[in-house]
TrEMBL record:
Primary localization class, coarse: membrane
Topology with respect to the bilayer: Multi-pass membrane protein
NCBIfam families: 2a30
High-level lineage: Eukaryota, Metazoa, Chordata, Craniata, Vertebrata
Region feature Disordered, mapped onto this chain: 13-34
Record keywords, A-Z: Cell membrane, Chloride, Glycoprotein, Ion transport, Membrane, Phosphoprotein, Potassium, Potassium transport, Symport, Transmembrane, Transmembrane helix, Transport
Source organism of this protein record: Oncorhynchus tshawytscha
Name recorded for this polypeptide: Solute carrier family 12 member 6
GO cellular-component term (any): plasma membrane
Chain's gene name: SLC12A6
InterPro entries to which the protein is assigned, alphabetical: AA-permease/SLC12A_dom (IPR004841), KCL_cotranspt (IPR000076), SLC12_C (IPR018491), SLC12A_fam (IPR004842)
Residues that span the membrane, as ranges: 109-129, 141-170, 190-223, 243-262, 269-290, 395-419, 440-466, 486-504, 540-558, 564-585, 597-614
Pfam family, one: SLC12
Catalytic activity reported: K(+)(in) + chloride(in) = K(+)(out) + chloride(out)
GO molecular function: potassium:chloride symporter activity
Length: 1073
């Protein structure tokens, strides 16, 4: 057992105070030190060990705050509660030590929590008010096709939704949560708002349906507006719908505001109404097979007559009857009558022939009508009409022009509502099991009901009655009510309450969806709608929802509102399918849904069907919905709060980036595709501020937002100690990039020496084919006055590294004088001095700069240099032709440089340069000698002290010390001799030796070139806004580095803004297309 208790073996080796787990008897018996100084012991006296860390995990105790024990992690997951979406990020709710209130465990199962709510939301107003009309107009076959397409769309969407819903815990928030966390905040916000608008317009549609049932079939006498002529009946009806719809909306909004619990209690009553209504339809269809209900329809020839006109009058055309008075000018037998009335027979046909009548053979084909057409029965005889009928005659007319696409848009809302289960995910006992089963079973049930209803309606009801939208031919009865058993009132009352209930559910769900979007804080202007009452009820969101629903009610036509909400729902379903397909194809590691009966092909098929239905039902509404979603997307992208939800779009971006990078690896870019991909080298001062921010400004002007930009800096030091400093420097660079509006990446390297860090950055920046091809760095300011030569030596080393890497190099000189992004240059010139050809960089850079607003007004001039043996006239012609083929507009000038003798000024300038170099070299040497002298004196004193100590102890050491003392003695004479030998400028003789230097011939030649070129450039370009100039390469011998800096200074002397350009050795511009 000793091995199981290591503390026991340590007891004899420790005192009571040293034992790591020894507790005092009293909590006040020790000082305030709670923890031992030993770094491996984390002990708190007076507190039980279980409150801190387990003894068996002592190796990990220092990281317990960031890497908790598995037991505590599992404990937090066990206590997980489904949070109201948007109240706070669900990830934050998992933070360590968060206090939670005791929540009642959700107990709803699949049937009550998902299946029945989905049924209630799917079955709606369209089933009772429009499905018979759809069947009669489109025919049984095309109606089956419409229902099948719409049901397939929702089924495929439900499969995709089930996969997403079972991929982890879905907090309350349903479809919006799933889409936003799968596709990112931009798509989530856009589709979330589309779903919100769809739900809001659905509420308006249900209210309009309830008002239509009320005014058409329950209480026609309640109409406020009544038209005296047939022409004004439609307008009067719309006005009635607007008034009553607004009243209903206000009452429903007040009910929702008072308390959602009342709405939830009424939900079961409304659902019972729906189920009873549907059962009465099926019962009536079966009863009609042997005992069809009596609903006669009066026909004139093959034209349908309105039952409102006849009332209880007999259906015959004898004198004094109601029909005679409608078609004739008087009650007399010799009165003048309508031509069609005289030639046609009046007959009466059953409105509900019954299931066994075979009427389905007449209803199987479509009968699309134009607005104003009379409903006709094709099998009845009819004379050829001379004039089209007028609406003053008692016929039943078509109120709108119908087509297959119109019917699709009107019917589709009747299959929406499949998200009801996922919206209640917070109340489900096992959401990952209940949502797929309940939703798919509800869709299959409703699809079966719709498909069977289409067949039953076509088999039981007369065609003209089916096409009669408002039941005028059957004396104003609801058409589907004529089929129901035992009475039409079952359907009328049931459908009225079910549509009211559906409207209440929409007005309850839509504000919560808007509140969830607002609390996610992805759309700034919606933040106000995230607030509500003290209990969390979304008051402001309810107010906005009511205002938007009022817009739908003011439209007043059910047939016009239905396609609008179809668009928004289809948009939402499309993106649910897209989310599932993306996650499946990208094979994200976190994509592990429990629902396994999905495939990316099904999701893509669902997407295609959704998109097709959008444009089939109403192409202009589809475009409007897409534009609205696109505007919301761009708004969130540019102004919304940044969120990282691990969404699929980010995964898609990574996959696309990987694919593109691999494609770029296939070969070097063609000359036509070459553009400067910049690596901008910046230097930070002691306070971690960018020394030359105008370098970034220049880079942004050169890039104009295109191509790659990497901004880098080097911090000298050790990476282990300077990690925090590197992160701070990176944040500084990002802030400066945002300020200068530079799109790109930043990189910070920690190295022992700056030149090594720059070399590493030039070698390793970028990835694959997405690498920099141009380096931008600043000119070393005041390098002549600097005692430390490292700045210009690092500069020259960077030039050499860039040349070795075959990269282009841009060095703006006097960068502080370059214009900012808000300082556009006045009209002037960008002068290019093309002295040697190194790939055409000098031609391309001015063209790119002029794309930016700062340089847009500047014209371009190109100068080149002709020697004595060159034909300057021909050179100018050739250069103009070359620029013409390059499609670059520029003035051309050839400057002749004659072979003149080297001037005394050049000779003197070279001599001054070499003398200065020699003097600085001697000064640096004498400085190092002074340091050596001080060190030798220090060593002498220390050796004297050691010798005196040794002589007291041992005589043998005295001899050795004496010898050492002789060697280390530093006398005045020796010091003078050493200085005279090693310091050439410390004596008048040494100074005279330095003055007698003869300049090197190659340096004189280089200085001559620099002076002559500078004279010509200053003469021609003294007023230019910017001068671009070939940058000569550094000398191969590093001993002449300081002279190289001097040559560059002479070359650019007297010029305000200069850009030294050094090509990378490859062509960057071409005359070919």
């Amino acid at each position: 057992m000793v091995g199981l208790c290591p503390q026991a073996t340590m007891l004899p080796l420790m005192s009571g105070e040293d034992m790591p787990y020894n507790r005092p008897t009293s909590p006040h018996s020790r000082d305030g030190n709670a923890k031992m100084s030993n770094v491996y012991i984390n002990n708190s006296h007076g507190v039980d060990d279980d409150d801190f860390y387990d003894r068996n995990l002592a190796l990990f105790e220092e990281e317990m705050d960031t890497r908790p024990k598995v037991s505590s992690l599992l404990n937090r997951l066990a206590n997980y509660t489904n949070l109201t979406q948007g109240a706070r990020e669900h990830e934050e709710a998992e933070s360590i030590g968060e206090k939670r209130k005791a929540h009642k465990s959700p107990q709803m199962g699949t049937f009550m929590g998902v299946y029945l709510p989905c049924l209630q939301n799917i079955f709606g107003v369209i089933l009772f008010l429009r499905l018979t009309w759809v069947v009669g107009t489109a025919g049984v076959l095309q109606a089956l096709c419409i229902v099948f397409i719409c049901c397939c769309c929702t089924l495929l969407t439900a499969i995709s939704m089930s996969a997403i819903a079972t991929n982890g815990v879905v907090p309350a928030g349903g479809s919006y949560f799933m889409i936003s966390r799968s596709l990112g905040p931009e798509f989530g916000g856009a589709v979330g708002l589309c779903f919100y608008l769809g739900t809001t317009f659905a509420g308006a549609m249900y209210i309009l349906g309830a008002i239509e049932i009320l005014l058409m079939y329950i209480a026609p006498w309640a109409a406020i507006f009544v038209s005296g002529s047939p022409d004004g009946e439609g307008a009067a009806m719309l006005n009635n719908m607007r008034v009553y719809g607004s009243i209903f909306l206000l009452l429903m909004a007040l009910l929702v505001f008072v308390g959602v619990k009342y709405v939830n209690k009424l939900a079961s009553v409304f659902l019972a109404c729906v189920i009873i209504s549907i059962l009465s339809i099926y019962t009536g269809a079966l009863v009609s097979a042997f005992s069809p209900p009596t609903f006669p329809v009066c026909m004139l020839g093959n034209r349908t007559l309105s039952g409102h006109i006849l009332h209880d009058s007999p259906c015959n055309g004898t004198a004094t009857t109601t029909l005679w008075l409608q078609f004739c000018e008087g009650p007399d037998l010799n009165a003048s009558c309508d031509y069609y009335f005289n030639l046609s027979n009046i007959s009466e046909i059953p409105g509900i022939p019954g299931l066994s009548s075979g009427v389905i053979t007449e209803n199987i084909w479509s009968v699309y009508l134009t607005k104003g057409d009379v409903l006709e029965k094709g099998s009845l005889p009819s004379p050829r009409p001379v004039h089209p009928p007028t609406n003053r005659l008692p016929y039943v007319f078509a109120d709108i022009t119908t087509s297959f696409t119109l019917l699709v848009g009107i019917f589709f809302p009747s299959v929406t509502g499949i998200m009801a289960g996922s919206n209640r995910s917070g109340d489900l006992k096992d959401a990952q099991r209940s949502i797929p089963i309940g939703t798919i079973m509800a869709i299959l049930t409703t699809s079966l009901v719709y498909l069977s209803s289409v067949v039953l309606f076509g088999a039981c009801i007369e065609g003209v009655v089916l096409r009669d939208k408002f039941g005028d031919s059957v004396k104003g009865n609801l058409v589907v009510g004529t089929l129901s058993w035992p009475s039409p009132w079952v359907i009328v009352i049931g459908s009225f309450f079910s549509t009211c209930g559906a409207g209440l559910q929409s007005l309850t769900g839509a504000p919560r969806l808007l509140q969830a979007i607002a609390k996610d804080n992805i759309i700034p202007f919606l933040r106000v709608f995230g607030h509500g009452k003290a209990n969390g009820e979304p008051t402001w969101a309810l107010l906005l929802t009511a205002l938007i629903a009022e817009l739908g009610i003011l439209i007043a036509s059910l047939d016009l509102v239905a396609p609008i909400l179809s668009m928004f729902f289809l948009m939402c379903y499309l993106f649910v399918n897209l989310a599932c397909a993306l996650q499946t194809l990208l094979r994200t590691p976190n994509w592990r849904p429990r629902f396994s009966y999905y495939h990316w092909t099904l999701s893509f098929l669902g997407m295609i069907i959704c998109l097709a239905l959008m444009f089939i039902s109403s192409w202009y509404y589809a475009i409007v919905a897409i534009v609205i979603a696109g505007m919301i997307y761009k708004y969130i992208e540019y102004h919304g709060a940044e969120k990282e939800w691990g969404d699929g779009i980010r995964g898609l971006s990574l996959s696309a980036a990987r694919y593109a990078l691999l494609r770029l690896e296939e070969g070097p870019p063609h000359t036509k595709n070459w553009r400067p991909q910049l690596l901008v080298l910046l230097k930070l001062d002691e306070d971690a501020y960018v020394k030359s921010p105008r370098l970034l400004t220049f880079a942004s002007q050169l890039k104009a937002g295109k191509g790659l930009t990497i901004v880098g800096t080097v911090i000298t030091g050790n990476y282990l100690h300077s990690y925090g400093e590197a992160l701070a420097a990176e944040q500084t660079l990002k802030h400066q990039m945002d300020k200068e509006k530079v799109k790109g990446f930043c990189q910070c390297i920690v190295a022992n020496k700056a030149r090594e860090g720059i070399s590493h950055m030039i070698q390793s920046s970028g990835l694959g084919g997405m690498r920099h091809n141009t380096v931008v760095m600043g000119w070393p300011l005041a390098w002549r006055q600097s005692e430390d030569p490292q700045s210009w030596k690092t500069f020259i080393n960077t030039v050499r590294v860039t040349t070795a890497a075959h990269l282009a190099l841009l060095v703006p000189k006097n960068i502080s004088l370059f214009p900012g992004n808000s300082e556009p240059c006045a009209e002037g010139y960008i002068d290019v001095w093309w002295i040697v050809h190194d790939g055409g960089m000098l031609m391309l850079l001015p063209f790119l700069l002029r794309q930016h607003k700062v340089w847009r007004k500047c014209a371009m001039r190109i100068f080149t240099v002709a020697q004595m043996e060159d034909n300057s006239i021909q050179m100018k012609k050739d250069l103009a032709t070359f620029l013409y083929h390059l499609r670059i507009e520029a003035d051309v000038e050839v400057v002749e440089m004659h072979n003149s003798d080297i001037s005394a000024y050049t000779y003197e300038r070279t001599l001054m340069m070499e003398q200065r170099s020699q003097m600085l070299r001697q000064m640096r040497l004498s400085k190092s000698d002074r340091e050596k002298e001080a060190q030798l004196v220090k060593d002498r004193n220390s050796m004297l002290r050691l010798t005196s100590i040794g002589s007291d102890d041992d005589e043998d050491t005295d001899g050795a010390s004496e010898n050492r003392r002789v060697h280390m003695t530093w006398t005045k004479e020796k010091a003078l001799q050493y200085r005279a030998t090693h310091s050439g400028c410390s004596t008048p003789e040494g100074f005279r030796d330095m003055l007698s230097i003869r300049p090197d011939h190659s340096n004189v030649r280089r200085m001559h070139t620099a002076v002559k070129l500078n004279e010509v450039i200053v003469n021609k370009s003294h007023d230019a806004r910017l001068v671009l100039l070939n940058m000569p390469g550094p000398p191969r011998n590093p001993a002449g580095d300081e002279n190289y800096m001097e040559f560059l200074e002479v070359l650019t002397e007297g010029l305000e803004r200069v850009l030294l350009v050094r090509g990378g050795g490859s062509e960057v511009i071409t005359i070919y297309s």
